[in-house]
Design a protein that fits this description.
The chain has 162 residues and is an alpha+beta fold. The protein has 3 helices and 5 strands, in the order E-H-H-E-E-H-E-E. It has a 5-stranded antiparallel beta sheet with strand order 1-2-3-5-4, with helices on one face. A hairpin with a 5-residue loop joins strand 4 and strand 5. Helix 1 packs antiparallel against helix 2. It is globular.
C-alpha cells in the first residue's frame, strides 16, 4: 500500500477476492483522513468505492492472479475514485427487480456520484471512475460537510479522458 501527501494520487493493488472490498474501503478511509475529508463526502466515497471494487471482484472476466488497482486523487474540488481490472468487459447499469439481491451497484454509483464513466486501461482491461464533489474548505483545511448534497438526479455516465 502507498502513502502520499495531500493531493497526490494514491494507488493501491488488491487481490480479486471479496475481502479486498473491505480492505480497499479501509485504505480509502485512512487517506480521506489525511486529506481532511470527512462527513457525507467520505461516506459517499466509501460506498462508491465499495460498489466499484465489488463489481471488479464479481464481474471482471480476468485470469486468476490478476489484481485490482485503485486510485484516489483530489483535484479542483473533486475526489476521484478509480478502480481498474484486467477485463475488457464493459460494465452497464441494470434494472434490478424488487426481489433481486444484486444488480443495483452501478445505479447507486450513478445516483451518488457527481459523474462516472469507463475508460480503457493502459495495457489490458478498463478503469471505472467516479467523482465526488467536495465541500468548500473551512479554516485550517478541514472539510465543512454541511454543504454536501448528493446529486441523486442528473448524474451522467460518459466516457472521459483523465
Amino acid at each position: 500500500m502507498t502513502q502520499a501527501s495531500p493531493r497526490d494520487a494514491v494507488v493501491n493493488r488488491f487481490s480479486r477476492h471479496a475481502r479486498s472490498v473491505g480492505r480497499a474501503r479501509a485504505v480509502l478511509r485512512a487517506q480521506l483522513a489525511v486529506w481532511g475529508i470527512a462527513g457525507d463526502a467520505a461516506e459517499v466515497a466509501e460506498l462508491l468505492l465499495s460498489e466499484l471494487v465489488t463489481n471488479a471482484v464479481r464481474h471482471a472476466c480476468a485470469p486468476q492472479g490478476r489484481e485490482i488497482r485503485t486510485l484516489f486523487s483530489v483535484n479542483g474540488g473533486l475526489l476521484r475514485l478509480e478502480v481498474s481490472d484486467a477485463s475488457d468487459r464493459q460494465p452497464s447499469p441494470t434494472v434490478a427487480g424488487d426481489g433481486d439481491e444484486g444488480g443495483r451497484g452501478l445505479s447507486l454509483v450513478a445516483a451518488l456520484s457527481d459523474d462516472w464513466g469507463v475508460m480503457p486501461r493502459e495495457g489490458v482491461g478498463k478503469s471505472v471512475w467516479a467523482l465526488v464533489k467536495l465541500p468548500a474548505r473551512s479554516v485550517g483545511g478541514l472539510v465543512d460537510d454541511s454543504r454536501i448534497s448528493a446529486q441523486v438526479l442528473g448524474s451522467r455516465h460518459r466516457q472521459q479522458r483523465r
